[in-house]
Amino acid sequence: MPLYSQINLMERFDYFIRRLLLVIPTFIGITLLCFILIQFVPGGPMEQAIMQMKGLQGGESGRGAEARSSISEAQLEALKVHFGFDQPIYKRYWKWLVTDRLGMKMESYKYPNKTTWQVIKERFKISLIFGITGFLLTYLVCIPLGIAKALRHEKFFDFASSVMVFVGYAVPAFALGMLLKMLLCGTVDWAWDIFPVAGFQSDNFATLTLAGKIKDIFMHMALPIVCYMIGSFAVLTLLMKNSLLEQISKDYIRTVLAKGGSYKRAIWGHALRNALIPIATGFGSILTIMFAGSVIIERVFEIPGMGWLSLDAIVGRDYPVFMGILSLQAILGLLGNILSDFLFVVIDPRITFQEN
Questions:
Q1: What pTM was estimated for this model as a whole?
Q2: Consecutive H or E run containing 34
Q3: Which range is least confidently modeled, 151-165, 265-279, 291-305, 326-340?
Q4: In Å, how far are 228, 269, 270, 298 from 178, measured between CA atoms?
Q5: CB 334 within 8 Å of CB 285
Q6: How far is CA 317 from CA 52, 156, 246, 305, 309, in A?
Q7: Window from 64-68, 157-161, 191-195, 314-318 with minimum mean pLDDT
Q8: d(CA 66, CA 122)
Q9: H/E/C letters for each residue in 149-208?
Q10: Burial class (CB in 10 A: 0-12, 13-18, 19+), 72
Q11: Closest alpha carbon to 350 in 277, 254, 282
Q12: What is the CB-side half-sphere exposure of residue 298 using CA atoms within 13 A?
């Protein structure tokens, strides 16, 4: 191996090792800041437990202070011990981080007799299926469409597809979801009743054959997936188109053509690979696809996914579940950024990582 290649390889190796080591303090900084902030959010587990003791409704959060003042000091101290609020915040954070395994072993406040991991695991599979499907379909459609638009720049296909892409981008995903639900789910008398109204599976899913189960899941996923894709569809398509047009206009493409190379070879053999470099920035998001679901879309189609769970954890002050979701998302997001850098090198081995 040439000396330059060996040096370049060592630089890349050192860079990725440093990035991996930075994941730890960055993760601690993110989770510690959020852990401290949630201690000061009103309506927490202490207030909710006090209101339950006094027979108040959950919605009467304004009476939390009144309820707190009406219980004895012994009861208040017992509640602090029960929820761990008698300990300094750094000890509580250490217990959450190490003893409770990022809070995954803690019992959920909202779901009795279930740990944080058990609650997350129930929603994880559904969000993972939606995330993978939406991610793959977005790239499988947008990259070829962006290439086709670049090769037919300023022609009818480019104009017509741009109109469709921008119209779709202008429509909010939740509004599109409600429109599709009204038109294709039979929620009104004059509409088509083609797709299920809500949920992820039919009530009789367990009794269906394998083909029937696949069809049932497909019918439930079709409309939400369209809504998931619509937001990033225009951005990714135009990014692919503009990136390829930029590469086509560069000198090395003209050099290939001047040396007798075909236009097809110049595009597919040279320009396309370099045009994929900006697209690779989004490849790392495959590690966070289980958190890609929109809360509003999940509400519209009543999908029990991670987005809905996150909202319920915040509204219901279910701190163990909220922190569990946050910690998973932080870890996967940080590793996803490193994966994106690695894919840069795979697509273009000339890339080096040097500090200024």
A1: 0.79
A2: helix 3-38
A3: 291-305
A4: 13, 44, 44, 11
A5: no
A6: 14, 53, 49, 18, 12
A7: 64-68
A8: 37
A9: HHHCCCCHHHHHHHHHHHHHHHCCHHHHHHHHHHHHECCCCCCCECCCCCCCCCCCHHHC
A10: exposed
A11: 277
A12: 21
Q: Percent helix, strand and coil across the chain, each rounded to 5?
A: 75, 0, 25
Q: In 10 A of CB 2, how many CB atoms?
A: 7
**CATH of 3-38+100-347 given 3.40.50.300, 3.30.428.10, 3.30.300.20, 1.10.3720.10:** 1.10.3720.10
- Cβ atoms 321, 313 nearer than 8 A: yes
CB 250 within 8 A of CB 159: no
Say how many residues make up the chain.
Answer: 356
Least confident segment among 69-73, 136-140, 227-231, 334-338: 69-73
Residue pair 323/32 in contact by the 8 Å Cβ criterion? no
| Beta bridge mates, 193 | 185
In the chain, where are the structural domains located? 3-38+100-347
Label residue 70 by pLDDT band (50, 70, 90).
low
* pLDDT one-digit tens code per residue, 3-35: 445 556 676 777 788 888 889 999 999 999 999
The residue type found at 187 is T
